Amino acid sequence: MRISAKADYAVRAALELAVAADDTSLKAEVIAASQGVPHKFLEGILGDLRRGGLVVSQRGGKGGYRLARPADEITIADVIRVVDGPLVSVRGVRPPELSYRGPAESLLPLWIAVRANVRKILGEVTLAEVAAAELPEGVLDLAEDPEAWTNP
Questions:
Q1: How many CA atoms lie within 13 A of 41 on its CB side?
Q2: Using one digit for the tens of pLDDT, what is the confidence trace for 90-132?
Q3: How is domain 5-149 classified at the architecture level of CATH?
Q4: Element (H or E) spanning 65, and its range?
């Protein structure tokens, strides 16, 4: 799995909105400056998040963006899917739509297992947990493995 810059920026923007007060809207400029994200690129991402139902926007002097639902109801997977589509694909195709023959036949269950594990982590971790630095124990266990931090 590869996390695109767009997905990374989207999650970071959503986290900024997660820590804002419930009735506070943040301007794109503020989010961009806080996270070191290109402003124009972020505007497009925030538009995607709005169209995806994860954020709402308000115009005017007190305008800006805020989460459409509580941060504990939005997963990291929700954000990534809105801006990038499926979490795991092979050649742009979702694993269940693939078929293989011969010695490659067992690739399909492998790709399905990869997708299941990505979903298990990103689909269960919420914006609220990340913003509060309270990742689930299973995620922390995986991250504490020294081999997780090295590139083979």
A1: 16
A2: 888 888 888 999 999 999 999 999 999 999 999 999 999 999 9
A3: Orthogonal Bundle (1.10)
A4: strand 64-67
